[in-house]
Structure formats: structure tokens, C-alpha cells
Amino acid sequence: MPLIKRAVSPVDVSRVKIPPEVTNGELQFVANSTLANLIRQLSSISKHAEHIFGEIYLEAMKLDHKSNTLEKRIANLTEKVSKLDSTNEQASLGELQMRKPFKSSMLVDQHTLDRSTLPVALAEVYTRCDPPPNLDALNPFRDPGAPNALSLYTNPSFFFDLWRQEMLKDCADNTGRRRIKSPPPDGLAVVKSPKKRRQRFPGSKQRVLHCSFRYMSSLRNQRTTAALSFPDEYQAPQALGLQLHKTNQIQHVQVSCLDQFQFSFRVFREYSNTHAAVEIIHHQLPAMK
Questions:
Q1: Rounded to whole angstroms, how far apart are CA atoms 206 and 184?
Q2: pLDDT in tens, 59-114
Q3: For a Cys staple, 33 with which of 16, 38, 132, 245, CB 3.0–4.6 Å?
């Protein structure tokens, strides 16, 4: 339905009702009424013309303000560009990071459809409309907490309240929603990934692992000590001799222990009688030291 912004009144200039007291000059009365209505039409047209030129003046003022602002910005930019020498002056990355990010100072009008932004002609059309009925008189008879009776007849904020309720509902659903996995394709079974569990060993295996861990830790400590020690040429000859003698003793002990272990393992493998194997090892190990 089109909304008439400006209407010239009166429309029917010659359709007038002749009063009963006029008996002889009906044609003259109609002619005078037509002339008066034509003058009213000219007055209405001049009023609309004044509103139109007033709106044009406001638009011209806005355009002039925008053009002046743009001219000042162009002048400032031209001055900066003329002073800039790209061959000698190079901005470093540190200076660019220290600068504040660009932020536009232009204000965005968010009240485009507000009642205060209506043109004068439309504002007059709204003022000529019939007011809503006085339904607020029924509010004392309504239940406590119920909306006003006038809101059931007209409620300009109905759509905004409905949109707000939907947004709040979506936010609540998103916070309480769990992640839903997509179903597998047809013909394929759902295969769950195996969970990593901590392996538990018997008591003997745990002791062996603990001993091996201590042995590896001792090796790491020896490597670290060797890495932090000074070279041989910077040490005293007496300390160097003692160190070499101690190293030879350690190597000899390690070799003898390895031979004893191999001998014991060979005896246990050849003899099925454990008591006899223990007796042989007990008599032979002192001779190997």
C-alpha cells in the first residue's frame, strides 16, 4: 500500500453542499466556492513547495559539509606526500608496531527509521492519524504481571522483543549444546580408538625395570660429569695417573663381573639340578676373581 507523502487539498473544488438559505444564487455560490477551493489548493501547493525546498537546503548543507571535510583531508594528505622521501626515509617495523591501529572517526547513524528522522510532511501525516483507543483504562482489571492492555492493540516494540528472545534462546542453546559426532557412512562399523592404559608388570619385572632405570641414570650422570670435566692436558700429572689407574681398575672389575655372569648362566643351562649348579658356581667363582 503506497503512503502518500504530500497531498494537495481540497481535491473536489466544485463539489460543495448548497445551504438551504440560498434560493436564488446557486450558480454564483458554486462559483465562489470553487474559487475559494482553488485558492486553498494554491496555498497547499506553496506549503509543500516550502517543505521541498527546505529538505533540498538541508541536503545541500550536508553535501557541503562532506565536501569541505574531504577537501581538508586531501590537503593534509597532499602535504604529507610532498614531504615524504621514499628513497632516504624508511620506516622500521618497530616504529610501525608502536603506532596505534587506524580507527575511523566517522559516526554511523543507527537510527535511520527513528520517529525524529521523519520528514515534516510525513510527521504531519502521522499527527493527523486517529489516536488508539484508551485501553489503558482496563489495566486495573488485568492480572498482576500481565502486559498493558494497549500492547495487545498496538505494540511498536513487538518485533524487537521477539528478536531479543530468539537471540537469548540461541545463546542458551549454544552454551548447553554438546558436540555431536557425524554418523559413519552406510556399511561401515563404528571403530573406537583404543585407550592408552598404563602397563602393569609383576613384582620381579618392576624390580628389574627399576634397576635398569637406575643404571641408565648413572650413565647419564657419568656423561654429564665427563662433559663438564677438564681435558687431560690441563690436569696435574699425579691426578692424571691416579685417574688412569682407577679407570683400569673399574674396567677390570666390569670384565670380571661379566665373565662370572656368563659362567653362571652356562652352568644353570647345562645342569638341571639347581643345587649342583649352585655348588659348582660357589667353588669356581673365587678362582675367577
A1: 42
A2: 999 999 999 999 999 999 999 888 876 666 565 666 667 777 777 777 777 777 77
A3: 16
> Which of 126, 151, 176 represents a domain boundary (last residue)?
151
**Distance between start and end Cα atoms, the chain:** 116
Which residues, 6+ apart, have CB-to-CB distance to 125 below 8 Å? Answer: 3, 4, 5
Nearest Cα neighbor of 5 from 48, 67, 39, 40 is 48
CA angle 161, 165, 171 (to 5 degrees): 145
Question: From CA 74, how far away is CA 72, in angstroms rounded?
Answer: 5
Is residue 13 domain-shared with residue 145, that is, in the same domain?
A: yes
Q: How far apart are CA 281 and CA 67, in angstroms?
A: 109
Rounded to whole angstroms, what are the CA distances from 153 to 126, 134, 140, 147, 149?
Answer: 18, 10, 17, 11, 7
pLDDT, tens digit (0-9, with 9 covering 90-100), for 266-287: 656 665 555 556 666 655 555 5
Does a structural domain hold residue 260? yes
C-alpha 144/C-alpha 140 separation (Å) is 9
CB 285 within 8 A of CB 262: no
